Amino acid sequence: MKIVTSNQKKLGEFRRLLQNNYITAALGLDLKEVASDDPITVIKYKCLEAGEGCVVEDAVLEIDGECVTDIRYKLCELQD
What we know:
By secondary structure, the protein is of the alpha/beta class. The protein has helices at about 10-15, 40-50, 70-75, and strands spanning about 1-5, 25, 55, 60-65, 65-70. The radius of gyration is 14 Å and the shape is globular.
């Protein structure tokens, strides 16, 4: 099994953390971001696109009790 990411910094961190483990880390494609407020939907589509035997990651934040799956695009909306 392998975890895939297109982020070089995350790849290095995964490789460091997964040393001597049955899971490997590999550079993958930059997967499409599915527009959804449901993290399960987002990760499901990423898994399908990554392919069989691949594990994917995605950042999900909870802000004021609300799940935010696309924080990259909402940073300008956040206030201190």
